[in-house]
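Let's study a protein:

===
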Amino acid sequence: MADFPIETVRGKFPALSLTDHGRRRIYLDNPAGTQVPQAVADAVSRCLLSTNANLGGFFETTVAAQQVVDDAHAAMADFLNAASVEEIVIGANMTTLTYHMSRTLGRTMKPGDEIIVTRMDHEGNVSPWLQLAEDLGLVVRFLPFDEQSWQVEEAALKALLSEKTPLVALNYASNLTGSINRVQALTAIARQAGALVYVDAVQFAPHGLIDVQALGCDFLICSAYKFFGPHMGILWGRRDLIEGLKPYKCRCSSNGLPERFELGTPQIELMAGLTAAIDYFADLGAAAGEAGSRRQRVAKAFEVSIAYENALAAQLIEGLSDIEGLIIRGITDPERLAERVPTVSFTVEGIAPETIVRQMNAENIFLWSGHNYAWEIVHQLGIPAEQGVVRIGIAHYNTAKEIEETLESVHRVIAMLRQQRA
């Protein structure tokens, strides 16, 4: 942890120095959205002020705006290791893109086909497929996660696959338990059975290097605002597949890739911020000693940030484990930290999660309670959906001191609430 340039990193994020009535802020709401570096805000502002035009013309601002769009697709191709910029589709958000792609893929399906979704995913990769099944007369098969490993097991997937399965919707990492699935192995099983694989990588993208070519999946989706960028979603689709799909689009709009899947006027200023977010990772990798391509620098950034985040996660899990009646809903074994992202959720016997979170929010420690759209997880675990969990999410700009203060608050708040009940 000592080798990670935490003070330099924190200096790039203006929000981290803000106070409220003289009280510091601790941002542990990161699974719902991270803060942004100054460079991201500057890029958005610069685009609005100097390259603000629609696309397709011949004058200076429209030409410059097209370059912003092209740069964003190239940056995301590097971030995901896509084979081509034409495989990168940028849109409003993960859920909107998934609804759009699910309807497009629905044109290739027929009544009686079986779609597999997991009980581990965010609703953004569940509800679109459930509603598609309702519209088309498809069958939905639910793939549970193992409550000992906290992961989707290969044997469970094999048991659900059949010759009627056109698609499997998986998630890379859980936004509630933090568990990372073995996506490459699961994808290989699904593809061998003839199914397409659609991967939700929203929660994994801030915490691990994604290589879509190595994973072997057909689609992968993530959200820029989870990895220090603006509010937008990015979908990668395997080119030989997406170029044969017929999307829902305006008759007169482009049939080229990826434009045919990018509906309406693009969020050009946010694309400028997206490129800046990827370059933030690349700069972090360069500071850690990598002088190669942007992809290589991004890989180095994740190498150093994963080690740093895992140490913070270990500190948090160890501190929470001391509290009687507190149950961490996810992997707690220190030897398995590489199998989870640093998102830690828990419940406390006899105390509503919101009660804990309200008290901690009052201390300017920002975190969430509730089901956090992990609807199937709370139901599989028997957790009341209206209560959910307390969720603490670490990003690589957090510090050991912040985790220490957070643990002190958790201990203090739970003790106070128990005393009030007594």
About this structure: Residues 247 and 400 are 47 Å apart (CA to CA). The mean pLDDT is 97. The chain is about 40% helix and 15% strand.
